[in-house]
Amino acid sequence: MSSGPPPGIDLYADIKESVISPVIALMVLSAICVALRIVAKFTTNVKLQLDDYFLFAALVGILLRGDSCYKGIGKHIWNPTVQLEEVMKILWAYEFLYGSVIPLTKLSLIFFYYRLFHVSTFRKVLWFVLFLVVGWWIAILVTSIAQCRPYNYFWKQYVDPTAIGSCINIPHFFVGNAAASVATDFMILLTPIPMVWGLQMPVAQRLSVLGIFFLGGFVCVAGIVRIVVLLQMFKSADLTWNMSQAFIWSSVEPNIGIVCACLPTLRPLLRRCIPDWFAGSSLNKSGSTPHYGTDYSSRLRSQTGDFYALTDRNGSNKDKSDDEMGLTNNFQSDGHQPRVSTGDAAAHEETHNGIMVKHEINWSSTSALHPQ
């Protein structure tokens, strides 16, 4: 920190409002998405799953963030109203909140994928990613606790010239933590692509599914921008002023992560509220719609969207719904008429949350679902 402000600087400049407004907006957006996720679950009679609880915990962590903007972030560090010790205390606490919110969101996505795809090889990859995320989470918490000795030297060094202690290279820790987060974001983003693309369904349908997963790319972009902002922040003597951008992007990443994690579960709710939006899906426009064979006691409920969520043979819909896309329908072409694969991998039924791996589905050029 320099001994004084540079010449010509307005010591009383304050950009607090431009910092806190987008942060609050993002928090409201993520809270709304989580609320809609719960509504979608209840309206489709689906019990809350482990991935839902991870996401709820992540949202709670976001809402517990401190009021650092009212302590000095967005003001020049030489402004006499800046409460630098309070700012640094909040930053120290935020390390634990941020270090938990991000892994919890990642775990929610991992367990969502785990429920969605019953494929041994894919699940082994997920276990590997899960191991990395949990290990990274533990490393963040342990390092945050031990980064300074004594721990309060983290903020005392800025306000008490007589304070005695030592810290690790905190800028390197922040940047390294952010880089590890981005790396695992990319892993989670890319992991389901081969799985989805390998599904034997129309190309337009596969692209629609991948499009939903690719929305997670916004989280990766936010993480990269955050690294750049952190590097700029630690190079500046005006810490509280430059911390404002880091504060914003540290809010963008977890909140957008929660929004993207909720999107795949909101489609049935949207279809019920605004059915006209889903009336012209590419699948229906092509004139090809699936229908069950005669041996089904429970018929596929008519849906006009791009994805088909299937119920089980005995018609039991308890805890089953179309809250997730019908990604695991294993279609393969047989001349003109596509049919369900009868290979060993699809010879058994696996139903979870309305998704069935193996069903005898015939395709015909009709405009509505009907039994044979």
UniProtKB/TrEMBL annotation:
Chain ranges passing through the membrane: 20-40, 52-73, 93-113, 125-146, 178-197, 209-234
A Pfam family that the UniProt record links to this protein: Fung_rhodopsin
Renumbered residue ranges of the record's region Disordered: 309-347
GO cellular-component term (any): membrane
Principal location: membrane
Entry keyword Transmembrane: yes
Keyword terms, alphabetized: Membrane, Transmembrane, Transmembrane helix
Coiled-coil segments on the chain, per record: none
InterPro entries membership: Rhodopsin_dom_fungi, SAT4-like
Membrane topology: Multi-pass membrane protein
Residue span(s) of domain Rhodopsin: 36-272
Compartmental location: Membrane
UniProt keyword Transmembrane, yes or no: yes
Similarity remark: Belongs to the SAT4 family.
Name recorded for this polypeptide: Rhodopsin domain-containing protein
Species of origin: Trichoderma harzianum CBS 226.95
